[in-house]
Amino acid sequence: MTPKNSRRGAQGITIYFALGQCSIGIVLVAQSEKGVCAIYLGEKPVSLINQLLQQFPHAILMGDDSHYEQLVAEVIGYIEQPLSTWRLPLDIQGTVFQERVWRALRQIPLGSTASYSDIAEQLGSPKAVRAVAQACAANRLAVVIPCHRVIKRDGQLSGYRWGIARKEALLAREKGQ
């Protein structure tokens, strides 16, 4: 999906999706022809599907395909055993700054954390702490773009699009607890 198509709500783009259950709730995984474009976490399937509809309002959404159920199983495996390597193609769409933040997040080692300030400094924009937080909030690819590894400067957990309890569980799992 091109950035232009993404801004237009994925008009004319076919996006396949499926839902699954894991230890931290329901998982929705969506894929365009380019790659995985959304991984959402939540409690209610309807809520996750509504998020997908809001993100891609003009896409042709296709569910209930057994191939994509296998994709969900792979994502769940990645969530449950974070030592596994992500090997599926991604369709990442964001602003230039968001994509820079998301690349930096993918460099945070498994079991480690970084502060919003650390990421802003790493990007050469030490005053862009809020912009880093906003990029984390805009992340559509839970776990794969590990915004759950970003914490406050004082070491405390802060907001997470899919809930603080999930953030805490993911971090504990990555640290082997």
Structural commentary:
- The protein folds into 2 domains: 78 residues, 2-Layer Sandwich (Double Stranded RNA Binding Domain), CATH 3.30.160; 79 residues, Winged helix-like DNA-binding domain superfamily/Winged helix DNA-binding domain (Arc Repressor Mutant, subunit A, Orthogonal Bundle), CATH 1.10.10.10.
- The chain has 7 helices and 6 strands.
- Strands 3-2-1-4 form a 4-stranded mixed beta sheet. A two-stranded parallel sheet has the order 5-6.
- The longest helix has 15 residues.
- 35% of the residues are buried.
- Pfam families: DNA_binding_1.
- InterPro entries: MethylDNA_cys_MeTrfase_AS (IPR001497), MethylDNA_cys_MeTrfase_DNA-bd (IPR014048), MethylDNA_cys_MeTrfase_DNAb (IPR036217), MGMT_N_sf (IPR036631), WH-like_DNA-bd_sf (IPR036388).
- Keywords: DNA damage, DNA repair, Membrane, Methyltransferase, Transferase, Transmembrane, Transmembrane helix.
